[in-house]
């Protein structure tokens, strides 16, 4: 089972800070992108897990992959690992769980990522909502999950080609003890073949690869700096544009980052610090903007590195979302800091409650008695596609199609379900 990042990355929360003042530190930053617009620079990238399966879907893993604690048994209130329930109305292949019926009636079913229609549906949503590029998560492919993950790469490639999206391979090396040799073999023997696709992301004319997990100060990421640098340089020597998914304190070598890895971080073409578990409010985002993002961007500018900070919608189960105000504040801060791209954490991460993919709007769309919250948990009606629409507007602001604004322009609900939101 792939390790979830939250399990080892809950860092001390950022302290609250006052809102922006006349002394906006980002004003001192020149627009100094290391690279011109491409498939990640100037674009919205979404992290795509594609790691849900169900018995009977044809996947080699033949289990309730990432839907339940015991993959051999159907998800239920006592066998549950997810924090939000997907809106299931657009999936043609569905799988019956052991949950009670939905609050509004109807069976409690879930989707499988192994069904091509599921992946196509997700990439259609990306096309409709300005998600330019999908970073397909790839954990240790030599585990029992490997054959299913191999097939998922092909399904993502097909959907990206069909819906005019880009995709790239994002290696999450968490827990991959024999990573140094095996990641090179995996790229050479399997994943590099996907760069022949017209949909494979390129930046500066080079195929994009991300390596997530170098430099984190925990036992799941034990490699020394020389090992990490060897892998980064190997991919660059293969002609790749290499993104580093790094700790948020990468620049200072403190907190969640090991000391002595700055040479590794500076070897990447693009830096993408991880933020899930580190912030939960708009005030946290402001604090990180002042204390981390501004000096991060300056360091990247000085070293010819592109900067791709995370933006997250917030954990539904922890009531972090504030009907989009939390996410919009991050978009505002990342655009005003001058980021070269934005990484959304994540598209389909129902396990951490962090997904922007369509989600149950009310308790009518959630299994009765499950304890799971819906998007209206704070009393504001939100359409199931709200966080996709919010991402679309954030991308428009990144691209200069929408003026920089701290005021969220996106209504939580549309049509007859729309409500006036105080402060909009």
Summarize the structure.
With 424 residues, the chain is an alpha/beta fold. Helix content is 26%, strand content 11%. Strand 4, helix 3 (146-163) and strand 5 (166-172) form a beta-alpha-beta unit.
Low-confidence regions = 1-31, 419-424
Mean pLDDT, to the nearest integer, reads 92
Radius of gyration: 20 Å
What is the helical fraction, as a range of percent? 25-40%
Structural class designation: alpha/beta
Strand percentage, roughly? 5-15%
Number of strands: 12
Number of discrete helical segments = 9
How do the SSEs run, as a string of H and E?
HEEEHEHEHEEHEHEHEEHEH
**Can you tell me the overall shape?**
globular
Q: Helices and strands in order, then pairings?
A:
Blueprint: H1 6-9, E1 44-48, E2 95-96, E3 109-110, H2 116-128, E4 133-138, H3 146-163, E5 166-172, H4 179-189, E6 202-203, E7 206-212, H5 225-237, E8 241-246, H6 262-267, E9 270-273, H7 282-302, E10 306-307, E11 310-311, H8 325-337, E12 342-344, H9 386-398
Parallel strand pairs: 1-4, 1-12, 4-5, 5-7, 7-8, 8-9, 9-10, 11-12
Antiparallel strand pairs: 2-3, 6-7
């Amino acid at each position: 089972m792939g390790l979830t990042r939250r399990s080892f990355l809950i860092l001390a929360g950022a302290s609250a800070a006052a809102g922006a003042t006349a002394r906006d530190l980002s004003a001192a930053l020149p627009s100094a992108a290391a690279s011109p617009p491409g498939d990640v620079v100037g674009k919205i990238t979404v992290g795509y897990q594609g790691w849900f399966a169900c018995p009977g879907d044809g996947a080699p893993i033949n289990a309730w992959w990432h839907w339940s604690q015991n993959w051999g048994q159907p998800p239920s209130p006592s066998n549950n690992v997810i924090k939000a329930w997907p809106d299931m109305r657009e999936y043609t292949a569905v799988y019956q769980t052991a949950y009670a019926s939905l609050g509004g009636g109807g069976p409690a079913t879930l989707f499988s990522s192994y069904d091509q229609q599921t992946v196509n549906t997700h990439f259609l949503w990306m096309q409709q909502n300005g998600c330019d590029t999908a970073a397909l998560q790839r954990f240790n492919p030599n585990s029992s999950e490997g054959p299913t993950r191999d097939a998922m790469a092909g399904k993502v490639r097909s959907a990206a080609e069909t819906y005019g999206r880009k995709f790239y391979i994002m290696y999450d090396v968490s827990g991959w003890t024999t990573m140094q040799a095996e990641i090179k073999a995996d790229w050479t023997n399997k994943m590099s073949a996907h760069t022949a696709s017209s949909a494979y992301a390129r930046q500066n004319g080079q195929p994009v690869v991300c390596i997530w997990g170098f430099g984190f100060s925990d036992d799941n990421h034990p490699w020394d700096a020389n090992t990490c640098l060897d892998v980064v340089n190997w991919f660059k020597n293969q002609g790749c544009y290499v993104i580093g998914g790094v700790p948020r304190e990468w620049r200072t070598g403190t907190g969640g980052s090991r000391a002595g890895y700055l040479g590794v971080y500076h070897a990447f073409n693009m830096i993408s610090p991880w933020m899930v578990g580190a912030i939960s409010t708009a005030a946290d985002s402001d604090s990180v903007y002042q204390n981390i993002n501004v000096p991060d961007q300056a360091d990247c500018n000085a070293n010819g590195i592109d900067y791709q900070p995370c933006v997250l919608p917030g954990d539904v189960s922890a009531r972090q979302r504030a009907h989009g105000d939390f996410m919009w504040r991050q978009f505002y801060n990342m655009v005003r800091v001058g980021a070269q791209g934005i990484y959304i954490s994540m598209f389909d991460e129902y396990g951490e409650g962090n997904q922007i993919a369509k989600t149950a709007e009310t308790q009518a769309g959630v299994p009765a008695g499950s304890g799971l919250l819906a998007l209206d948990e704070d009393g504001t009606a939100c359409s199931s596609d709200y966080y996709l629409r919010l991402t679309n507007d954030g991308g428009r602001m990144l691209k200069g199609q929408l003026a920089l604004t701290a005021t969220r322009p996106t209504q939580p609900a549309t049509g007859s379900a729309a409500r006036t939101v105080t402060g909009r």
